[in-house]
Design a protein that fits this description.
Helices cover 75% and strands 7% of the residues. By secondary structure, it is mainly alpha-helical. The chain has a domain of 167 residues. A hairpin with a 5-residue loop joins strand 3 and strand 4. The N and C termini lie far apart (54 Å).
């Protein structure tokens, strides 16, 4: 808290808070971009680590759902798409210490979440990078008996296919969520976070999520050491060039 002559300078506090939030979101974007860059540099290792044979059942389940989606009752499908969209907004709002006052979902007329608190980019963009129903099923599959995991993973794949169909319906530059956060920032963040989640999902479905974590840690350390070696060697290299 900043005090000036015995009174609290609230405008200055609010201005500093706004600057911090704005800078943090760009730092987060930079960190995610750096992670994806390191993963892209190791794409061959990642490609060889993917077990396509083990992924066949969930992949076929997801593709079958997409192929038969048009035959489902669209009114019910639209309702659940809107429900999960608004639920993701609400969960992220509560995560950032906001109070949700109203949660409304309709079939065909959209939905809305009203609350008290401060919004941010994560709350606004959450439905476009965080498939909440898929994450819930992944958690259930993790704690379920081993004999049930193969069947639950089929539902995980179907739920992710449903998420992709939801994005096909909802995602676009017309969305207020994207315009409020910034079209360019929103586009980059949504693409990058979806790529990371897809990678996590692939290794989860083949039962190698721990291996992915170790792999990311390993390449992170390797690239960090390489970067630091270049930083330490560069001054000497530049000095030698002038000798």
């Amino acid at each position: 808290m900043i005090k000036v002559s015995g009174w609290v300078n609230k405008p200055l506090i609010l201005e500093m808070e706004a600057v911090f939030v704005s800078n943090f979101r760009y730092l987060f974007l930079s960190a995610i971009s750096l992670l994806l860059l390191m993963l892209a540099m190791e794409w061959q290792s990642i490609w060889h680590a993917i077990d396509f044979e083990q992924l066949q059942p969930p992949l076929l389940a997801g593709l079958l759902f997409i192929a038969t989606y048009s035959f489902l009752p669209q009114k019910h499908a639209d309702f659940w798409m809107t429900f999960f969209h608004e639920l993701t907004h609400a969960l992220f709002a509560m995560t950032f210490n906001n109070k949700v006052l109203n949660f409304q979902v309709t079939a065909g007329e959209g939905g809305a979440v009203q609350g008290v608190g401060k919004g941010n980019w994560a709350i606004s963009l959450s439905p476009y990078f965080f498939p909440v129903h898929t994450v819930i099923l992944m958690l259930v599959s993790t704690i379920a008996s081993y004999s049930w995991q193969a069947y639950l993973n089929l539902f995980v794949a179907v739920s992710y296919a449903f998420y992709l169909l939801t994005q096909k319906r909802d995602l676009g530059f017309h969305q207020t969520d994207l315009r409020k956060t910034g079209i360019l920032y929103s586009t980059i963040m949504i693409i990058e976070l979806n790529l990371i989640f897809l990678l996590i999902l692939i290794f989860f479905l083949q039962g190698d999520l721990a291996e992915l974590t170790r792999f990311i840690g390993m390449i992170g350390n390797d690239h960090f050491r390489t970067m630091m070696d270049h930083l330490y060697s560069s001054p000497g290299t530049i000095w030698a060039a002038f000798q």
